[in-house]
Amino acid sequence: MRAGLRALTSRGRSFLASGVAALVMAFLLGENDLFRIGLLVAALPLLAAMVVARTRYRLSCARRLDPARAEAGGEATVTLRLENVTRLPTGLLLIEDTVPYTLGVRPRFVLDRVEARGVREIDYRVRSDLRGRYPIGPLSVRIADPFGLVELTRSFTITDTLVVTPQVVALPHVRLSGEWTGGGDSRTRSVAAAGDDDVAPREYRQGDDLRRVHWRSTARHGELMVRREEQQWQSRGALLLDTRKYAHRGEGPRSSFEVAVSAAASIGVHLAREGLGLRLVTDQGPEHLTDTGLSWSLLDRLATVRGSSARSLEMGVSALRAGGGDGLIVAVLGALDADEARDLARLRHSGITGVAVLLDVDTWNGRDPESGDDYRAVQTVLAGYGWRIVRLPAGVSIASVWQDAASSGRYALSGGSA
C-alpha cells in the first residue's frame, strides 16, 4: 500500500487532496452530502493504489534472443514474454526494455489489459554495426489504473547478453600445408587395422578404463595390461592478430583495425571448419580459446578485442615461438617496419607454412596502393623468408584476395597478385 501511495500521479494527489479538503469542510459545516462526495473523491485514489500495488508483485517476465550471436551489421529479434500470474486482470501496462544506445532507441510498448493468467509476447529488433557484448535489460513495467491516478514502476532483474561478432565472409579453399600432431599413446598403431594379436599394450595405470584391459597380455606378463590409445590426429596452427592502435588507420566500422578483426574471424572460422586446431595470439600474447566450439569461442573473443597501446609485436612473436608445434601461422598485420617483419619472419622454417595478410594501411588515408616504402620493405622481408603474402587494401574483401595464400612469397613478388 505504501508503494501504491508513493506512486500516485499528479491527478491522484489532486483527487486525494480535494477529497480530504471536502471532508474537513463537511465536518466544519456539518454538510452530509459534501462529506459523502469528499469520501468518494478521497477513496478513489486509495482504492486505485491498492489495486495497482496488488498487481505489482504478480507479473513474470522472460526474454529470448534470436540469434544470441549476431554479426556486425546484422539484426537480432528480442522476444519479451509477460505473464499475469494472478486471478485479476491488470490495468494499463507501459513496457520499456533497456538497451544500449548502440543497439538503437529504447523500445516502448503499451498493453491495454492482460487478463487473469494471460500471456503477452512482444517482439522488437536490435541492430549494431559495432562488435561487442551488449546487455539487454532489465525490463521496466509501469502499471497504471484506468483513471490515471496511480502509476507504479517495476523493474525486473533479469538481463540477457547479445554478442555482436565480427563480420565473417566465406573464403575459397586454399591448400595450406601444416604439421600433423596429436596426443595419444601411439602415433602409428591402430587396433582396428592391426588386429588384436598385434596390439602394443602397456601396463595398467590408475584411472584407465577397464574395458581397455588386454587379457592375453595380462596373462603373459603376469600383471594387468591395457591397450594403447589410438593416436588422435589434428592439424595445428596459430592465428596472429595485430591489435596495436598505432599500426592501424581510420575510425569506426570501416577502419583498418575493424577490417583486420573481420579478416581474422573469417580466416579462423574457415580454418576451424577444415579441421585445424587453432590458437589465437595478439601483440599482447596468447588468448584463451575453449576446446569445444572453436569457431564460436574465436568469434566470442574477437567480438570484444580492442586496440592495444603496444608499440611492438615482440610479445606476440614470443608467444608464437613458445607455443611450438604449429604447422601453419597466419598473421593479420597492420603497419610494421622491416625489423619487426624480420623477427616475425624467422618463425617460419621447414615444416611450417607462413601466411601474412598485410593490410596496406596507407590506402585508408587515400594514398596510392603500395606506395609506402615501409610496406614494400616488409613485403620483401617476409617473402624472402618464404612467407606467402596476401595484400589487403581498403575497400577490398579478404575473400577476393585469399587465394594469394596459395602462392609462395617469392612467386608473388616476381609476378603474382600479392
Question: Which percent range fits the helix content?
Answer: 25-40%
CATH architecture designation of the largest domain: 3-Layer(aba) Sandwich
**Category by helix and strand content:** alpha/beta
Low-pLDDT parts are 179-198, 414-418
Distance between the termini: 74 Å
Return Rg in Å. Answer: 33 Å
CATH topology of the largest domain: Rossmann fold
Mean pLDDT: 83
Domain module tally: 4
Tell me briefly what this model is.
By secondary structure, this protein is an alpha/beta fold.
What does this structure look like?
There is one protein chain. This protein is α/β, with parallel strands linked by helices. The chain has 4 domains: 2-55, no CATH class; 59-165, Immunoglobulin-like (Sandwich), CATH 2.60.40.10; 185-227, no CATH class; 233-414, Rossmann fold (3-Layer(aba) Sandwich). The protein is built from 12 helices and 19 strands. The strands form 5 sheets. Strands 11, 14, 15, 16, 17, 18 and 19 form a 7-stranded mixed sheet that branches. The model is unreliable at 179-198 and 414-418 (pLDDT under 50). It comes from Nonomuraea corallina.
List the helices and strands and how they pair.
Layout: H1 2-6, H2 10-29, H3 32-56, E1 59-66, E2 69-71, E3 75-84, E4 92-97, E5 108-111, E6 119-127, E7 132-136, E8 139-144, E9 151-155, E10 160-165, E11 180-182, H4 191-194, E12 201-203, H5 215-221, E13 225-227, E14 233-241, H6 256-273, E15 276-282, E16 285-287, H7 294-304, H8 314-323, E17 328-333, H9 338-345, E18 353-359, H10 373-384, E19 388-392, H11 398-401, H12 409-414
Parallel strand pairs: 2-10, 14-15, 14-17, 17-18, 18-19
Antiparallel strand pairs: 1-3, 3-6, 4-5, 4-8, 7-10, 8-9, 11-14, 12-13, 15-16
Helix pairs in contact: 2-3, 6-7, 9-10
